[in-house]
Amino acid sequence: TIFDAHLLSRWVLGIAFLLTPIMVVIEKQVLFSIVRSLHMRGRGVQQAIIYGSGFTGKRVFSALLRSRKLGVNPLVFVDDDEEQVGKRIYALGYHHEQFAPVIHGPVTSHLIESYSANMIVVAIPSLEQEKLVALAAVAKEARVMLAFVPSGTIYEDAWVNYIDIDGIMLATVDDR
């Protein structure tokens, strides 16, 4: 008002001061609803393969299912342990409604292609560096994103939660 030489009423400034935060909140809710409806229709959703079906894998699976605004749909678990193959891993909660099957590893380009996945989530914080590098090479070859749970962020004690996304801290590497 001072620099433009136009006078504004104090009422206009007061109303603008009150309406601006309200309108920002409304805008955020509308955009969130639009993104959620697009995700429900399958648009912008990444199909993920979870490597590791242990405790951390269950937590990652549950977190991805609860956090719909992330747009990640976990399809299947891949595990090298023969005893886990064929089992169903259910999301953590009271009702056993959502699950994913466990198949035998390793993760290959053919496996990624057969599930039409565009993301691999490594849910083994103690995975050896050589295996992680090999998975990164497979992800790069298949042109998919690689996300992993860094070591030291999720503890085996179910009562401790050091998390970013509904209970899981993920570090991502996107080398498309």
Spatial strand order of the main sheet: 3-4-2-1-5-6-7
Helix tally? 4
What low-confidence regions span 5 or more consecutive residues with pLDDT below 50? 153-176
Give a quick account of the main beta sheet: strands, pairing sense, barrel closure: 7 strands, mixed
What is the distance, rounded to the nearest whole angstrom, between the alpha carbons of the first and last residues? 50 Å
Helix residue percentage = 25-40%
> What is the tally of beta strands?
7
The string of secondary-structure elements, in order, is HEHEEEHEHEE
Summarize the structure in words.
By secondary structure, the protein is an alpha/beta fold. It contains 4 helices and 7 strands, in the order αβαβββαβαββ. It has helices at 10-40, 55-66, 109-114, 129-142; strands at residues 46-51, 72-79, 88-90, 99-104, 119-122, 145-148, 171-173. It is elongated, with a radius of gyration of 22 Å. 24% of the residues are buried. Mean pLDDT is 78; it is low at 153-176.
Summarize the structure.
The chain is of the alpha/beta class and 176 residues long. The chain has 4 helices and 7 strands, in the order H-E-H-E-E-E-H-E-H-E-E. It is 36% helix and 19% strand.
